[in-house]
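Weekly sync, protein design subgroup
Attendees: M.S., D.O., the rotation student, P.L. (late)

Item 1: inverse folding check
M.S. brought a backbone from last month's batch and wanted to see whether the design step gives back something sensible before we order anything. D.O. pointed out we never logged the input encoding, so this time it goes straight into the notes. Structure tokens as presented (189 positions):
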């Protein structure tokens, strides 16, 4: 079926599997690309001719259900979209609240002999795991909470005195003592 749409001629046909094939021509009969824009009157004319072709071919016109528009579909989806936006906002806010703080010291002056005895300040489960693993490497792990209990703040002089009395004092250096002092205890007076 061939019909005129504005300044174009449109030809509709069915191929072997029953799908609609559309070809566009200029008024002179030369084939052209499908038009990029049709004004409102040309669109109505094209739709009416296409529906007539489909009825003549025994195929129902492809349309949305009666009373269904994209606006009504959007109205039905609006609550779902609002809930999704709220969930995304809450997830973003909760993810922003999570922070991790890590602190470490590097001793650039390596000791003259290898370190064999280490004091660790960590949760009991981690100290136990480190102790078990250190035995494979010939290192002795001490629980730092037993050496310097986290019950009060320690002054620098007290920490130096404690470090001097430890049996493994060669390995204890001042950054470790500073770390003992600053690991969550109230400040020294």
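Designed sequence read out in the meeting:
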């Amino acid at each position: 079926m061939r019909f005129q749409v504005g300044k174009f001629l449109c030809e509709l046909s069915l191929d072997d599997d029953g799908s609609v094939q559309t070809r566009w021509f200029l008024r002179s009969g030369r084939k052209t690309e499908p038009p990029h824009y049709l004004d409102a009157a040309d669109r109505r004319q094209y739709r009416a001719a296409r529906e007539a072709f489909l009825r003549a071919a025994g195929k129902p016109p492809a349309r949305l259900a009666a009373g269904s528009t994209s606006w009504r579909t959007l109205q039905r989806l609006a609550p779902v979209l609002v809930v999704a936006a709220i969930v995304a906002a809450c997830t973003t806010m909760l993810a922003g609240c999570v922070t991790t703080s890590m602190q470490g010291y590097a001793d650039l002056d390596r000791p003259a002999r290898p370190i064999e005895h280490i004091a660790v300040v960590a949760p009991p489960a981690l100290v136990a795991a480190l102790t078990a693993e250190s035995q494979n490497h010939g290192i002795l792990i001490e629980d730092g909470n037993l050496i310097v209990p986290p019950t009060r703040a320690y002054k620098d002089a007290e920490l130096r005195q404690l470090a001097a009395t430890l049996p493994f004092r060669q390995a204890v250096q001042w950054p470790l003592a500073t770390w003992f002092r600053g690991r969550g205890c109230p400040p020294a007076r």
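Discussion: Strands lie at 2-5, 8-14, 20-26, 31-32, 117-120, 140-143. The first strand starts at residue 2 and ends at 5.
Action: P.L. to compare against the previous round before Friday.
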